[in-house]
Amino acid sequence: MLCEQIFKDITEIHARLFDHRPAIQGHINYFLKEFEEKRGDREKVGLRNIEKAVVDIKDKFLPESKDAMDVFLTNLIAKLKVATEVCKKIEEKENNIEIPYLEDQREQRKKNWEDFMQRQFERSAEVDQEYDAQVIKLSKEYSDLEDKLISDYKTRP
């Protein structure tokens, strides 16, 4: 029993002298609390600044921007309408100029096509005539050869 008592006392003395976990834990908790408070204060200040900037933008810059946009957009719309009208007039002038030119070009292409087709027809007729002449010539040559073969065959003893 005495040994147990001595062992308990020694363990308690050892824990008090060398076991600093409770003290360290207390310091850690204190540090975390301080850090969170400072961080929370900084975030609150940052959020207040952002809120102030948003209110300033909402109250001051948005109405000014809206008024400026109304003025500039009406001017821009008017200028766009004028530009659109000018473009339409230019397009009409180009169409009036281009229509006769395009019709002339179309007629020229039509005439060229007809000439081309006529030349092709003439060439085709020439080829057909030449072919017929060659057929007649070859037929005559082969009939002469056939007659010669027959006469040679008959004259043979």
From TrEMBL:
It comes from the Eukaryota. Pfam families: Muted. GO terms for cellular component: BLOC-1 complex; transport vesicle. InterPro entries: Bloc1s5. Belongs to the BLOC1S5 family. PANTHER family: BIOGENESIS OF LYSOSOME-RELATED ORGANELLES COMPLEX 1 SUBUNIT 5. This is Biogenesis of lysosome-related organelles complex 1 subunit 5.
